[in-house]
Amino acid sequence: MKKTLGLTVLLTLLGTAAAAFARTYSYPVDRPTFSIDFPDAWNVELNTKEVAIVAQSPDKEIEYDIWKLPNREVKEDVKGALNDAVKDVNEIIEQYVTDVSFGEWHPKTIRGMEFLWAEGQGKYKDGGQTVYMEVNFFSPDDRTIYVLVYWGTKEGENRHKAAIEQIDKSIRKAQ
Questions:
Q1: Reported pTM
Q2: Domains observed in the chain
Q3: Which of 85, 136, 146, 150 has its CA 20 to 30 A from that of 167?
Q4: For residue 78, is pLDDT > 90?
């Protein structure tokens, strides 16, 4: 009994510690408006041509993509910019996923930032595996709007549950 309890406690601590080792990424690099933490073992790229941050789990079962909407378009017509962004996200998703369906849009607040988000799912074109997605719009400074797209398989979500929870809770306004 003591060995089983001790082993359970040790495994729990190791699982928690693995998710806790994370690096903070601030964006934009020159004048950050927000930051987000990803585990050290994840592959994280900043400032690619079209997407500001791309982060993948080591097994590539989970991916986060974050990019900024053009300021000019947002200032001229916020609702129109969001509608255009939804179309752009749909076009990106449809390159990789079929049978896409999304639920309703919902507001949520994380660390004082307002998010507008929707969940969806579909099937990867390559292999037919079910993929779960979440699309978020958020503004850390009430001027700039970012898009955060999450992709994950059920197996990946189960395997990386603690890391996903930590990542989701880590996003915050820049100091």
A1: 0.81
A2: 22-173 (3.40.1000.10)
A3: 85
A4: no
**End-to-end Cα separation, the chain, in angstroms:** 48
Q: What is the pLDDT of residue 19?
A: 47
Q: Which two tokens stand for residue 108?
A: 């949520």
Q: What's the pLDDT tens digit per position in 119-128?
A: 999 999 998 9
- Residue 173 and residue 110: Cα distance in Å, rounded? 10
- Structure tokens given for 163: 């890391």
Asked whether the CA dihedral 94, 103, 71, 173 is positive or negative, the reply is negative
Find tokens 């073992």 and name the residue. 41
Sign of the dihedral through C-alpha 30, 57, 66, 91: positive
Write out the E strands in the chain. 22-27, 34-39, 43-46, 53-56, 62-68, 97-102, 106-110, 113-124, 130-138, 146-152, 172-173
Q: How far apart are CA 66 and CA 50, in angstroms?
A: 10
Give 168's contacts (C-beta < 8 A, 6+ positions apart).
Answer: 110
What would the two tokens of residue 6 be? 């001790």
Residue 43 CB neighbour total at 10 angstroms = 12
Helix (H) or strand (E) holding 20: helix 2-20
